Structure formats: structure tokens, C-alpha cells
């Protein structure tokens, strides 16, 4: 049977990965201008699996308020169009052959509030991911303590370190969310 070990560095690395994923999701939320990474979170039902849009098409920004999506496989144009329409981004692509043109509408007050709600959803998903990593770490500590491989004092100390790491990463998520919310609501 494999020996269970406690690795705080691995726990912190996994938490940092959740935070980094959240920050890239935030970057995809627009604050008024078109950006090629706006479409990064979109996955398309292609070839029998969920595939990131970036693996099916090239996204470019020919104008500040326009995105151009060049789909490589003609048979995937409708699937890409559908995925973009069904995303939480509120975009409406126009199809021209294998190219989808997406006008970025001006952000009104209602749309800004919707974008903030999406940002909060991304934040909550990331916090849940960080808490799952915390749970995994605490489970390892409890198992080691139960098996007699770690003293009660060491287990308490390690549990405190895991909680401190969790608090630190959740604070980082909250800080990034507050900055993005301010950016979105800024007129």
C-alpha cells in the first residue's frame, strides 16, 4: 500500500491554480472593448467532446468593438455559433461563410450588472475549488493522525497552515473580483 504524505507546497500550488484560472476567466469578461481572450471560457460540442473554442478557430480583433472568429472546419461553424450564443457573455455572432463576426455592444447599466453577476459566479466557483483543495489536505492530515504517522500537535499545526493558505487564496480571489467589479461598473 502506498504511503500517504502531507505536502503543503502541493496544496498551495493547487489553490494558486484555482486562483489563476479565476483570473483568466475574469480577463474574458469585457469592460467595453473587444478582446481576443473574451471567448476563452467558451467550449464547443465538437467531434463528440467539449472542445475549447481556441482549438477550433482563430479569434482576432480587427476593430475595437468587433471580434472575428475564423473557424477552421466548415462543419463546425454552426456548433461554434451556438456555443457563443449560449455563453453567459450575451454575444450575437453574424455568420459569413467560415467567419463569425461579433459586434460588441455598448455596455449599458443593466448589462454591466449582468457582467458583475457573471464575475461573482466565477469567483464563487473558484472559492469552491480552493475549499475542495483544503478539504483534500485536511483529509490527508486526519488520515496521517489516525494512522499514527503524525502527532495530534503536528496535525493541528498542519491544519492551521492549510487554513491560512485557504484564507490567503480566497482573499486574493476577493481582491481580484473587487478590482474587476470596479472596472466593469466604471463608465
UniProtKB/TrEMBL annotation:
Compartments, record wording: Cytoplasm
InterPro entries xref list: Ribosome_recyc_fac, Ribosome_recyc_fac_dom, RRF_sf
Molecular function in Gene Ontology: ribosomal large subunit binding
GO biological process annotation, one example: cytoplasmic translational termination
Keyword NAD among record annotations: no
Assigned keywords, A-Z: Cytoplasm, Protein biosynthesis
Membrane-spanning intervals of the chain: none
Protein encoded by which gene: frr
Gene Ontology annotations for the cellular component aspect, listed alphabetically: cytosol
Protein name: Ribosome-recycling factor
Ranges for domain Ribosome recycling factor: 22-185
Similarity remark: Belongs to the RRF family.
Role according to the record: Responsible for the release of ribosomes from messenger RNA at the termination of protein biosynthesis. May increase the efficiency of translation by recycling ribosomes from one round of translation to another.
